[in-house]
């Protein structure tokens, strides 16, 4: 049997992996998926394909590997040019989309991590920072249906898992990171994006995500990670 | 005939390697721009207004619209003035992705190494540890250079490209840090390809007057650490 020309190494719970999978699905690209048991049990093949950062996701197209999820998404859009357009066309809009994706990864993700791995007064401070970060992120959405406009685009793919994951973390940690007070439009987008067919049918099981998040938190507090 | 440029402004600072990036890119495209130099320790109204999220330089303002984040600005310059000069990003999608991958790597490793090394003194144990990390990163970049250049002068081939700009802009500070902790990083024995490349990069028309002198950066560091720039 012929090997599929596209192979993706990732992890079922990783926002970085899922955003690439969604890009592939939007383009209708068939791919072979390999789940990696991160962080402690990476496969030999993964380490061989990405010796530099040793991280997932790694996309292999016709034998050539690529890493860095946002870089991979742009590669997918550049290579499969027919069909769904993921990146905006206008250079200014592209710059804005890239800026906000970087902001989401640099500020929002780290804020979420800080909130779920702190406690007491430190956590209150982290929570404030997280709430501000999401309030700022909302600016990229404004009154649009999706970050990409009428259709989902690059920035939606980058952030979508947060719509699913933030409520789970909020439950575990008993805080509110995104609500009608700091980011009402973003909260509405959470509902809309999770209702998109492609997204709805490819999210990880909620209970598994909940358990994993709880487990990671415990591992952090016990010094394992 | 050159396309209508519009109004191009760049908010920056002479010492910032990140500011050097759009300056080199604009030079490559032959685009004239108005430079707004920030004073260290005091952010201008223009900067705060143009980059309210990070309040950092560089910021490119094109026809009144601000674009932030140096690597993103370089891509914007390449896409906007696509018919001027050579292409900064590689034309092949895979090569483009590789250039972007290594740029993420550069930004992850180099600025942090510089920031950690520059307040140290020669011989300190911490300097040894941080130096090892920088050596290791440069070693990987040496291999990347071999693969990307394919025997030509630059990562981008015959012309300076995106990854040349990303890494090249960091050279001035790497040289400054060499003087500060007295450890050789741009070592011909260890990374011959990169050392030869760095000389070609520095000599390039678009780069020559952009890169600050290492001695000036050493002096800048001294002032930074002594609190001279504090308000």
UniProtKB/TrEMBL annotation, chain A:
GO cellular component: a single term: cytoplasm
Keyword Lipid biosynthesis: no
Residue ranges of every copy of the GST N-terminal domain listed in the record: 4-84
Domain annotation GST C-terminal: ranges: 90-220
Reactions mediated catalytically: RX + glutathione = an S-substituted glutathione + a halide anion + H(+)
Keywords: Transferase
Enzyme class: transferase
GO-annotated molecular function: glutathione transferase activity
Transferase keyword on record: yes
EC number in record: 2.5.1.18
Coiled-coil ranges from the UniProt annotation: none
Gene3D superfamilies hit by this protein: 1.20.1050.10, Glutaredoxin
GO terms for biological process, alphabetical: glutathione metabolic process
Family: Belongs to the GST superfamily.
Name listed for the protein in its UniProt record: glutathione transferase
From TrEMBL, chain B:
Keyword Membrane included in the entry's annotation: no
Protein name: glutathione transferase
EC number(s) per entry: 2.5.1.18
Domain annotation GST C-terminal: ranges: 92-220
Boundaries of every GST N-terminal domain copy: 6-85
Molecular functions (GO terms): glutathione transferase activity
Record's catalysed reaction(s): RX + glutathione = an S-substituted glutathione + a halide anion + H(+)
PANTHER family noted in UniProt: GLUTATHIONE S-TRANSFERASE, GST, SUPERFAMILY, GST DOMAIN CONTAINING (PTHR11260), GLUTATHIONE TRANSFERASE (PTHR11260:SF788)
Key words of the record: Transferase
InterPro entries referenced in this protein's UniProt entry, alphabetically: Glutathione-S-Trfase_C-like, Glutathione-S-Trfase_C_sf, Glutathione_S-Trfase, Glutathione_S-Trfase_N, GST_C, GST_C_Tau, Omega/Tau-like, Thioredoxin-like_sf
Lineage of producing organism: Eukaryota, Viridiplantae, Streptophyta, Embryophyta, Tracheophyta
Domain of life: Eukaryota
Example GO BP: glutathione metabolic process
One Pfam family hit: GST_C
SUPFAM superfamilies: GST C-terminal domain-like, Thioredoxin-like
Cellular component GO terms, alphabetical: cytoplasm
Record-stated family: Belongs to the GST superfamily. Tau family.
């Amino acid at each position: 049997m012929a090997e599929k020309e596209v192979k993706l190494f990732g992890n079922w719970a990783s926002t970085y992996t899922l955003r690439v999978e969604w890009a592939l699905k939007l383009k209708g690209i068939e791919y072979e998926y390999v789940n990696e048991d991160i962080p402690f049990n990476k496969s030999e093949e993964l380490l061989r394909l990405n010796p530099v950062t040793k991280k997932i996701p790694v996309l292999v197209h016709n034998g050539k590997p690529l890493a860095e999820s946002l870089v991979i998404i742009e590669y997918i859009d550049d290579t499969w040019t027919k069909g769904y357009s993921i990146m905006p066309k206008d250079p200014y809009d592209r710059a804005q989309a890239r800026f906000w994706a970087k902001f989401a990864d640099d500020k929002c993700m780290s804020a979420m991590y800080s909130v779920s791995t702190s406690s007491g007064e430190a956590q209150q401070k982290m929570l404030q920072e997280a709430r501000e970060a999401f309030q700022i992120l909302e600016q990229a959405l404004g009154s649009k249906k999706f970050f990409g406009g009428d259709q989902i685009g690059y920035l939606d793919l980058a952030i979508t898992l947060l719509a699913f994951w933030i409520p789970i973390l909020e439950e575990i940690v008993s805080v509110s990171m995104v609500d009608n007070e700091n980011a009402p439009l973003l909260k509405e987008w959470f509902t809309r994006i999770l209702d998109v067919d492609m997204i709805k049918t490819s999210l990880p099981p909620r209970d598994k995500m909940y358990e994993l998040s709880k487990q990671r938190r415990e591992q952090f507090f016990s010094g394992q990670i | 005939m050159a396309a209508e440029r519009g109004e191009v402004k760049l908010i920056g600072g002479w010492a910032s390697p990140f500011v050097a990036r759009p300056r080199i890119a604009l030079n490559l495209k032959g685009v004239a721009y108005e430079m707004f130099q920030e004073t260290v320790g005091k952010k201008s109204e223009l900067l705060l207004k143009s980059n309210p999220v990070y309040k950092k330089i560089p910021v490119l303002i094109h026809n009144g619209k601000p674009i932030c984040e140096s690597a993103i600005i370089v891509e914007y310059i390449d896409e906007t003035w696509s018919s001027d000069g050579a292409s900064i990003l590689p034309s092949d999608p895979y090569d483009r992705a590789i250039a972007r991958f290594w740029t993420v790597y550069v930004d992850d490793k180099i600025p942090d190494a510089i920031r950690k090394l520059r307040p140290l003194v020669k011989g300190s144990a911490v300097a040894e540890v941080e130096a090892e990390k920088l050596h290791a990163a440069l070693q990987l970049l040496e291999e990347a250079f071999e693969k990307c250049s394919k025997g030509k002068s630059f990562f981008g081939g015959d012309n300076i490209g995106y990854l040349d700009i990303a890494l090249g802009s960091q050279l001035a500070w790497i040289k400054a840090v060499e003087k500060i902790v007295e450890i050789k990083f741009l070592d011909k024995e260890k990374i011959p390809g990169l050392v030869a490349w760095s000389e070609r990069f520095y000599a390039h028309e678009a780069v020559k007057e952009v890169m600050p002198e290492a001695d000036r950066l050493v002096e800048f560091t001294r002032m930074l650490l002594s609190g001279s720039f504090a308000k």
